[in-house]
Each structure stands twice: as C-alpha cells, then as structure tokens.
Amino acid sequence: MAKEKKGVRLEHISKIYKDPKTGKDFYAVHDANIEIEPGSFVTLLGPSGCGKTTTLRMIAGFESPDEGEIYLGNEPINALTPNKRDTAMVFQSYALLPHYNIFDNVAYGLKLRKVPADEIKRKVTDILRLVGLEGMENRMTNQLSGGQQQRVALARALVIEPGVLLFDEPLSNLDAKLRVSMRTEIRRIQQEAGITAVYVTHDQSEAMAISDKVIIMNGGLVEQISTPQEAYYYPNNKFVADFIGEANFIKGTVKKQDVVEIQGTEIECATGSLDVGAECDIVLRPEGATLSDTGSIKGCVKYSCFMGAYQDYHVLVGDTLVKIQDYNPKNKKIYNVGEDIFLKFENDTLYAL
Ligand code: ATP
Predict the structure, then answer these.
(1) 305 has which bridge partners?
(2) What is the reported pLDDT for 3?
C-alpha cells in the first residue's frame, strides 16, 4: 500500500532547549546517530524527559535540530516543513475533527491534496477495512470509544501513504487491557501496510512487544540501539539493564574470558570485552537463577511469596539483595524466610558489565 518504504537516518542530531527554571541551555537530545531500516518498526524508549518525543518531533519537522542532519531515504529533510516531509504522525490525543464523521476525518488529507472523489472513496474504504472500522464511515468521531478513535487516527495517517509513520505515545489514553490489544493491532497494520514506523513510548513491555528494534534513551543520549532481545540479554550498561526488565547487579571480578568470581567461587558469565582482573557488575535477571540446597554462591532468604506463575524470593547474597523468580513452583521445594540457600544459575544467563 505504501508508495515506497523509506528509511530514516539521524546524523549527529542535537536539540538544545533553555531550562525554564535556571535559564541555562541544555541538550534535550545530544549527538544522536540513528539508522532506521525501511519497513521496520522502531521504538524510542526511555524515562520521562529523556528526549524521545523531541527526537520524534524533529523527524516530523515540528522541531528543528540545532546540530546534525536528518535524512528520509536519501533526502536531507532539515529544511522541509512538516507538510513537505513524507511522514504522518499519530498523536496521543488522536487530534480528530470532532464534528466530522469517520469517512470525512480519514478523507481530509486526501481532499487537501486534491485527490479525485472516486479515488478518495476507494482509498478510505480500503484503509477502514485495514484498521477494522469497515461499515462505520458515517459514525461521528465524538461518539466513538478511545480505541475506535485511535483506529481513525491511524487510518487518517495511513491513507496519505506516507513513507514513514510516526507515533507519539498513541496508546497512553487507553485502559491497560485495550493498550495490549491495540499494540498488537498497530503491529499487524504496520506489517500489512509494509510501512516504516517510529514509535515513542515509556512502556518497556509495549516496546518489546511491537518493535524490530528499540532505541533506548536517557538524559538526551542514545544508550543502545538493538533488538529487544539484545537489549535484554546484552545491555550496554546498567541503565539499559535496569530499564529493560528487572535486573540484579552482583559485584564480581573477571578471572578470565567468560569466567567471573563471586564470593571466591568461579562461575561462567559472558564478560564481553572486559579485562581480566576488572571489577564488574554481573547482571542477573530474576528468572536466571533458582534456589537450591547445594551449590557455590551462598545466600539467605529474606522474602518468599507465591505469585502463581512463580515463587518470588529476595535473597541476601553478601550485602546485595537479589530478586529471584522461580517459575512453575508447583512441584518444587519452597524455601522460607530465614533459610540459608545456594543460588543455582541457569546456563548462559549471566552477563558482566
Ligand atoms: P515524556 O515521556 O515525559 O514525554 P520525553 O522523553 O518525550 O518525555 P521530551 O519531551 O523529548 O522528553 O523532553 C526532553 C527534555 O526537553 C525534557 O527535559 C523537557 O522538559 C525538555 N523540553 C521539551 N520541550 C521543551 C521546550 N519547548 N522548551 C524547553 N524545554 C523543553
């Protein structure tokens, strides 16, 4: 459906704002280098204020970078106004025309572009089928549920066949259950339309569920660009490890390539490019270890709670409180508060930073 899948490239992009409190300039986005493949779904992810919306708005043309260049396909676009860029944005607020019906809302952009009426009818009908609003052309948008309004907003952006579709936290006004079903829908529609999508969210599970790649930002800096799996298993740093899923950090020392020492015991652990002898933080995901009567890394149970899918433990290892989720606890030995235990690591789950 899309004319052409376009990639997006940000080269050394920075945006400087003035802090309203201090009056001082600061980098809202600092030296971002981002490459988005044509046809991929990429999510800008990070805590509030990290610069993800500013980055998206610079791609859309609502903000101008102070440094660097943005390319859409091979075309530099810094100098183009938003309506001259081959992008369309889906907003958090939907931004629908309240006194228009669904058909006219979706047709609006095509009418502005002077597309012939019969072609408008065909395109709007096709898109409404794609977003699951077939047969609802005459409903007024102020009579729709939040989820339906979001579908109209998506249809309106898609119908003009942009090279790149931009999403600014599109699901944050929906309730939790609808958010989960709508994100699957957005992913399906993006794949069926075969369009490049850049999506902003601060919800890491949303990002992991829909993205080919995540761009994790913190304080205006891009911390990692990778698949969700790489970010989870091989985070670049403690911030990424902590932001994507839950992470324990256990102090250790690199003994040799892929071996670390914790409490005098050597264990297997991916050490990447760390030097032998380096002090390191070992990333342990809660599902990466279980509790056992025997083993090498000793701990004491401080908290033990049945959660259905897993037994939730807090274990004191040295002076670090380690969170463990032991899945499928039904036929397993359950440890209680105060018991001394050993941690048994799952194969290939430890990663040193
Ligand atoms: P959120 O999830 O809360 O929307 P975000 O990651 O999208 O956060 P941005 O909206 O990109 O963050 O903002 C990045 C930083 O720039 C924040 O510190 C914000 O307060 C600041 N900022 C954004 N717009 C302006 C502006 N027009 N003038 C001054 N500062 C701004």
Answers:
(1) 312
(2) 67
Q: How far apart are CA 41 and CA 195, in angstroms?
A: 8
pLDDT digits (tens, 9 = 90+) for 65-104: 999 999 999 999 999 999 899 999 998 877 888 889 999 9
Task: Give the residue-averaged pLDDT of 128-149.
Answer: 89
Instruction: Judge whether 215 and 42 are in contact, CB under 8 Å.
Output: yes
Residue nearest (by alpha carbon) to ligand 1 atom 7: 53
How far, in Å, is the centroid of ligand 1 from the Cα of 100?
32
Residue nearest (by alpha carbon) to ligand 1 atom 5? 49
Amino acid letter, 19: D
Q: Which domains, ranges and CATH numbers included, belong to the chain?
A: 8-233 (3.40.50.300), 246-347 (2.40.50.140)
Predicted TM-score (pTM) of the model is 0.90
Q: Is the pLDDT of residue 2 over 50?
A: no
Q: Give the number of the atom of ligand 1 that is nearest the alpha carbon of residue 56.
A: 11
Q: Please name the amino acid found at residue 114.
A: K
The pLDDT score that the predictor gives to residue 10 is: 98
Distance of CA 52 from the midpoint of ligand 1 (Å)? 8
Ligand 1 mean position, distance from CA 214 (Å): 19
